[in-house]
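User: Reviewer 2 asked us to show a designed sequence for the structure in our supplementary figure. I'm pasting the C-alpha coordinates here. Could you produce the per-position amino acids so we can include them in the response letter?
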Protein backbone atom coordinates (compact mmCIF):
# COMPACT_ATOMS: atom_id res chain seq x y z
CA UNK A 1 0.00 0.00 0.00
CA UNK A 2 1.29 3.45 -0.93
CA UNK A 3 1.79 5.65 2.12
CA UNK A 4 1.77 9.43 1.85
CA UNK A 5 4.02 11.22 4.34
CA UNK A 6 3.30 14.71 5.47
CA UNK A 7 6.35 17.01 5.53
CA UNK A 8 6.66 19.40 8.41
CA UNK A 9 8.00 22.96 7.89
CA UNK A 10 10.98 22.05 10.09
CA UNK A 11 12.00 19.24 7.72
CA UNK A 12 12.26 21.71 4.84
CA UNK A 13 14.68 24.08 6.60
CA UNK A 14 17.92 22.22 5.70
CA UNK A 15 16.89 22.12 2.01
CA UNK A 16 16.01 25.83 1.97
CA UNK A 17 19.30 26.66 3.68
CA UNK A 18 21.21 24.62 1.08
CA UNK A 19 19.34 26.40 -1.76
CA UNK A 20 20.19 29.84 -0.34
CA UNK A 21 23.83 28.81 0.03
CA UNK A 22 23.98 27.57 -3.58
CA UNK A 23 22.54 30.84 -4.88
CA UNK A 24 25.09 32.80 -2.83
CA UNK A 25 27.94 30.75 -4.31
CA UNK A 26 26.67 31.34 -7.86
CA UNK A 27 26.32 35.09 -7.34
CA UNK A 28 29.75 35.31 -5.71
CA UNK A 29 31.29 33.41 -8.62
CA UNK A 30 29.73 35.83 -11.10
CA UNK A 31 31.17 38.79 -9.23
CA UNK A 32 34.61 37.18 -9.06
CA UNK A 33 34.47 36.50 -12.79
CA UNK A 34 33.62 40.14 -13.39
CA UNK A 35 36.33 41.75 -11.30
CA UNK A 36 39.04 39.09 -11.60
CA UNK A 37 42.47 39.82 -13.04
CA UNK A 38 42.74 39.87 -16.81
CA UNK A 39 45.08 37.42 -18.49
CA UNK A 40 47.28 38.58 -21.35
CA UNK A 41 45.10 36.88 -23.96
CA UNK A 42 41.80 37.09 -22.12
CA UNK A 43 38.77 39.16 -23.04
CA UNK A 44 38.20 41.79 -20.33
CA UNK A 45 35.07 41.18 -18.29
CA UNK A 46 33.95 44.74 -18.99
CA UNK A 47 33.51 43.70 -22.63
CA UNK A 48 30.51 41.66 -21.60
CA UNK A 49 29.33 43.84 -18.75
CA UNK A 50 28.80 47.08 -20.64
CA UNK A 51 27.80 48.32 -24.07
CA UNK A 52 29.43 51.10 -26.03
CA UNK A 53 27.20 53.70 -27.65
CA UNK A 54 29.46 54.10 -30.68
CA UNK A 55 28.20 53.13 -34.12
CA UNK A 56 29.70 49.64 -34.07
CA UNK A 57 30.03 49.37 -30.29
CA UNK A 58 28.64 45.83 -30.17
CA UNK A 59 31.57 44.56 -32.22
CA UNK A 60 34.04 45.53 -29.49
CA UNK A 61 31.49 45.25 -26.64
CA UNK A 62 29.27 42.26 -27.52
CA UNK A 63 26.38 42.70 -25.09
CA UNK A 64 24.59 39.59 -26.34
CA UNK A 65 27.17 37.30 -24.71
CA UNK A 66 25.73 36.59 -21.23
CA UNK A 67 28.25 37.08 -18.46
CA UNK A 68 27.45 33.72 -16.87
CA UNK A 69 28.80 31.93 -19.97
CA UNK A 70 32.28 32.93 -18.83
CA UNK A 71 31.84 30.41 -16.01
CA UNK A 72 31.25 27.47 -18.36
CA UNK A 73 34.65 25.78 -18.85
CA UNK A 74 35.46 25.21 -22.50
CA UNK A 75 32.38 26.99 -23.85
CA UNK A 76 32.64 28.76 -27.20
CA UNK A 77 30.41 29.29 -30.21
CA UNK A 78 33.45 29.21 -32.50
CA UNK A 79 33.57 26.47 -35.15
CA UNK A 80 36.25 25.52 -37.68
CA UNK A 81 35.57 23.12 -40.53
CA UNK A 82 37.17 22.26 -43.87
CA UNK A 83 35.15 24.80 -45.86
CA UNK A 84 34.03 27.41 -43.30
CA UNK A 85 34.67 28.84 -39.87
CA UNK A 86 32.78 30.96 -37.33
CA UNK A 87 35.07 32.87 -34.95
CA UNK A 88 33.22 34.48 -32.05
CA UNK A 89 34.45 37.15 -29.58
CA UNK A 90 34.91 34.84 -26.59
CA UNK A 91 37.61 32.90 -28.45
CA UNK A 92 39.58 35.78 -29.95
CA UNK A 93 43.24 35.71 -28.90
CA UNK A 94 45.17 39.00 -28.99
CA UNK A 95 48.95 39.34 -29.05
CA UNK A 96 51.42 42.03 -30.17
CA UNK A 97 51.36 42.61 -33.94
CA UNK A 98 54.79 42.27 -35.59
CA UNK A 99 56.36 45.65 -36.52
CA UNK A 100 53.49 47.58 -34.92
CA UNK A 101 53.95 49.79 -31.85
CA UNK A 102 51.64 49.37 -28.84
CA UNK A 103 49.08 47.40 -30.82
CA UNK A 104 47.46 44.05 -30.11
CA UNK A 105 46.05 41.98 -32.94
CA UNK A 106 43.83 38.92 -33.33
CA UNK A 107 44.12 37.01 -36.62
CA UNK A 108 40.65 35.69 -37.46
CA UNK A 109 41.23 34.36 -41.00
CA UNK A 110 44.54 33.33 -42.57
CA UNK A 111 46.04 30.96 -45.17
CA UNK A 112 46.52 28.41 -42.38
CA UNK A 113 42.79 27.61 -42.62
CA UNK A 114 42.73 27.56 -46.43
CA UNK A 115 42.08 31.25 -47.18
CA UNK A 116 44.15 33.26 -49.67
CA UNK A 117 43.91 36.40 -47.51
CA UNK A 118 44.21 37.45 -43.90
CA UNK A 119 41.62 39.23 -41.79
CA UNK A 120 42.50 40.52 -38.34
CA UNK A 121 41.50 42.97 -35.64
CA UNK A 122 44.02 45.59 -34.53
CA UNK A 123 43.58 47.33 -31.18
CA UNK A 124 45.76 50.44 -31.24
CA UNK A 125 46.62 52.10 -27.94
CA UNK A 126 47.58 55.71 -27.21
CA UNK A 127 50.38 56.97 -29.51
CA UNK A 128 50.57 53.63 -31.36
CA UNK A 129 51.70 53.25 -34.98
CA UNK A 130 51.17 50.63 -37.68
CA UNK A 131 53.63 48.32 -39.34
CA UNK A 132 53.88 47.69 -43.09
CA UNK A 133 52.43 44.65 -44.87
CA UNK A 134 54.83 42.24 -46.61
CA UNK A 135 56.09 42.94 -50.12
CA UNK A 136 53.45 42.77 -52.88
CA UNK A 137 50.64 42.67 -50.30
CA UNK A 138 47.72 45.09 -50.54
CA UNK A 139 45.81 46.30 -47.48
CA UNK A 140 42.26 47.40 -46.66
CA UNK A 141 41.36 48.83 -43.24
CA UNK A 142 38.00 49.77 -41.72
CA UNK A 143 37.67 51.77 -38.48
CA UNK A 144 35.38 50.16 -35.91
CA UNK A 145 36.15 52.32 -32.89
CA UNK A 146 38.03 55.60 -32.29
CA UNK A 147 39.94 57.28 -35.12
CA UNK A 148 43.35 57.14 -36.82
CA UNK A 149 45.61 59.39 -38.88
CA UNK A 150 46.73 57.85 -42.18
CA UNK A 151 49.75 59.23 -44.02
CA UNK A 152 51.22 58.09 -47.33
CA UNK A 153 54.41 58.68 -49.32
CA UNK A 154 53.06 61.97 -50.69
CA UNK A 155 52.93 63.45 -47.20
CA UNK A 156 49.14 63.80 -47.19
CA UNK A 157 47.44 63.02 -43.86
CA UNK A 158 43.86 61.74 -43.63
CA UNK A 159 41.81 61.50 -40.46
CA UNK A 160 39.66 58.35 -40.44
CA UNK A 161 36.88 58.16 -37.81
CA UNK A 162 34.49 55.25 -37.21
CA UNK A 163 32.89 53.90 -40.41
CA UNK A 164 35.78 55.21 -42.55
CA UNK A 165 38.10 53.01 -44.57
CA UNK A 166 41.21 53.01 -46.73
CA UNK A 167 42.64 50.80 -49.47
CA UNK A 168 46.42 50.92 -49.93
CA UNK A 169 47.89 49.22 -53.03
CA UNK A 170 50.78 46.81 -52.65
CA UNK A 171 54.24 48.31 -52.06
CA UNK A 172 52.88 51.82 -51.37
CA UNK A 173 54.56 53.32 -48.32
CA UNK A 174 52.11 54.40 -45.65
CA UNK A 175 51.51 54.40 -41.92
CA UNK A 176 48.71 55.20 -39.56
CA UNK A 177 48.84 56.50 -36.02
CA UNK A 178 46.42 56.65 -33.15
CA UNK A 179 46.35 59.57 -30.70
CA UNK A 180 44.14 57.92 -28.08
CA UNK A 181 42.88 54.44 -29.05
CA UNK A 182 41.18 52.74 -31.98
CA UNK A 183 40.02 49.33 -33.18
CA UNK A 184 40.38 48.37 -36.85
CA UNK A 185 39.49 45.37 -38.97
CA UNK A 186 42.14 44.80 -41.65
CA UNK A 187 42.23 42.64 -44.78
CA UNK A 188 45.49 41.82 -46.56
CA UNK A 189 46.24 39.66 -49.59
CA UNK A 190 49.00 39.20 -52.13
CA UNK A 191 48.02 41.32 -55.12
CA UNK A 192 47.26 39.48 -58.37
CA UNK A 193 48.48 41.89 -61.04
CA UNK A 194 47.20 42.41 -64.59
CA UNK A 195 49.33 43.97 -67.30
CA UNK A 196 48.84 47.74 -67.57
CA UNK A 197 46.31 47.77 -64.71
CA UNK A 198 47.26 49.60 -61.51
CA UNK A 199 44.96 50.20 -58.52
CA UNK A 200 44.95 53.55 -56.73
CA UNK A 201 44.69 54.42 -53.07
CA UNK A 202 41.08 54.78 -51.92
CA UNK A 203 39.87 56.77 -48.89
CA UNK A 204 36.16 56.80 -48.06
CA UNK A 205 33.32 56.28 -45.62
CA UNK A 206 30.28 54.02 -45.74
CA UNK A 207 27.68 56.80 -45.67
CA UNK A 208 29.19 58.39 -48.80
CA UNK A 209 28.71 55.26 -50.91
CA UNK A 210 25.50 54.96 -52.98
CA UNK A 211 23.02 52.14 -52.61
CA UNK A 212 23.30 49.74 -55.55
CA UNK A 213 20.68 47.72 -57.38
CA UNK A 214 20.17 44.18 -56.06
CA UNK A 215 17.83 42.49 -58.57
CA UNK A 216 15.75 39.79 -56.92
CA UNK A 217 17.03 40.65 -53.45
CA UNK A 218 15.72 42.90 -50.67
CA UNK A 219 18.92 43.80 -48.79
CA UNK A 220 20.75 47.12 -49.23
CA UNK A 221 24.20 46.96 -50.82
CA UNK A 222 27.15 49.34 -50.88
CA UNK A 223 30.54 48.57 -52.46
CA UNK A 224 33.52 50.32 -50.89
CA UNK A 225 36.00 49.79 -53.73
CA UNK A 226 35.77 50.38 -57.49
CA UNK A 227 34.51 47.43 -59.53
CA UNK A 228 37.11 47.98 -62.28
CA UNK A 229 39.78 45.45 -63.31
CA UNK A 230 42.76 46.87 -61.34
CA UNK A 231 41.11 45.74 -58.07
CA UNK A 232 41.23 42.02 -57.33
CA UNK A 233 38.84 42.13 -54.38
CA UNK A 234 36.00 44.26 -53.07
CA UNK A 235 34.44 45.02 -49.70
CA UNK A 236 30.65 45.08 -49.46
CA UNK A 237 28.43 46.58 -46.76
CA UNK A 238 25.12 44.71 -46.66
CA UNK A 239 22.07 45.79 -44.61
CA UNK A 240 19.09 43.57 -43.74
CA UNK A 241 15.97 44.64 -41.88
CA UNK A 242 14.55 42.13 -39.35
CA UNK A 243 12.99 39.21 -41.20
CA UNK A 244 14.82 39.85 -44.48
CA UNK A 245 17.02 37.16 -45.98
CA UNK A 246 19.09 36.25 -49.01
CA UNK A 247 16.97 34.98 -51.88
CA UNK A 248 19.81 33.12 -53.60
CA UNK A 249 21.31 30.15 -51.75
CA UNK A 250 24.83 30.95 -52.94
CA UNK A 251 27.42 28.45 -54.16
CA UNK A 252 30.32 30.09 -56.02
CA UNK A 253 34.07 30.13 -56.54
CA UNK A 254 34.67 33.32 -54.53
CA UNK A 255 35.98 33.29 -50.98
CA UNK A 256 34.43 35.46 -48.28
CA UNK A 257 35.53 37.01 -45.02
CA UNK A 258 32.65 38.50 -43.04
CA UNK A 259 32.36 40.62 -39.89
CA UNK A 260 28.88 41.16 -38.48
CA UNK A 261 28.77 44.84 -37.49
CA UNK A 262 25.21 45.12 -36.18
CA UNK A 263 22.27 42.91 -35.31
CA UNK A 264 21.86 39.15 -35.29
CA UNK A 265 20.58 36.34 -37.43
CA UNK A 266 21.04 32.81 -38.76
CA UNK A 267 23.81 31.85 -41.19
CA UNK A 268 23.76 28.62 -43.15
CA UNK A 269 27.21 27.28 -44.07
CA UNK A 270 27.27 23.90 -45.77
CA UNK A 271 24.84 21.67 -43.88
CA UNK A 272 25.16 23.62 -40.62
CA UNK A 273 23.06 26.52 -39.28
CA UNK A 274 24.66 29.06 -36.95
CA UNK A 275 23.07 31.78 -34.81
CA UNK A 276 25.33 34.81 -35.20
CA UNK A 277 25.51 38.30 -33.73
CA UNK A 278 27.50 41.54 -33.93
CA UNK A 279 31.19 40.80 -33.40
CA UNK A 280 31.19 37.38 -35.08
CA UNK A 281 33.54 36.61 -37.97
CA UNK A 282 32.85 34.08 -40.73
CA UNK A 283 35.18 32.54 -43.31
CA UNK A 284 33.58 30.91 -46.36
CA UNK A 285 35.69 28.76 -48.69
CA UNK A 286 34.92 28.41 -52.41
CA UNK A 287 31.70 26.57 -53.21
CA UNK A 288 30.42 26.20 -49.65
CA UNK A 289 26.61 26.65 -49.67
CA UNK A 290 25.76 29.88 -47.84
CA UNK A 291 22.61 31.77 -46.84
CA UNK A 292 21.65 34.43 -44.26
CA UNK A 293 18.45 35.58 -42.55
CA UNK A 294 18.22 38.59 -40.18
CA UNK A 295 16.46 38.09 -36.84
CA UNK A 296 15.76 40.23 -33.81
CA UNK A 297 14.32 43.75 -33.69
CA UNK A 298 17.11 45.82 -35.23
CA UNK A 299 18.94 46.05 -38.56
CA UNK A 300 21.68 43.56 -39.43
CA UNK A 301 24.77 44.99 -41.12
CA UNK A 302 27.84 43.08 -42.16
CA UNK A 303 31.11 43.85 -43.89
CA UNK A 304 32.06 41.27 -46.52
CA UNK A 305 35.34 40.57 -48.34
CA UNK A 306 34.98 39.06 -51.84
CA UNK A 307 37.68 38.30 -54.42
CA UNK A 308 36.71 39.57 -57.88
CA UNK A 309 37.96 40.38 -61.41
CA UNK A 310 40.39 37.48 -61.69
CA UNK A 311 40.18 34.17 -63.59
CA UNK A 312 40.09 31.35 -60.99
CA UNK A 313 42.65 29.46 -63.10
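Assistant: Here is a per-position design you can include in the supplement:
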Amino acid sequence: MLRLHRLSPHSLLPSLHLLRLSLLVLLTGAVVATVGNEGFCSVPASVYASSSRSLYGKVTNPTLSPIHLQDLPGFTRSVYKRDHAVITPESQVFSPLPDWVDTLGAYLISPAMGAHFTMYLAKMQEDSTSGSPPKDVERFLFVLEGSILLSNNSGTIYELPVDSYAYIPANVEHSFKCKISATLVIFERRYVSIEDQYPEQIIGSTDKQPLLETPGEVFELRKLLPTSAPYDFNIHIMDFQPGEYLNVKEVHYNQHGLLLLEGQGIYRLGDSWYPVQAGDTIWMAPFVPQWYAALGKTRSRYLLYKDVNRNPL
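For the response letter, you might also mention the following. The first strand starts at residue 79 and ends at 80. The helical segments are 9-35, 46-49, 57-60.
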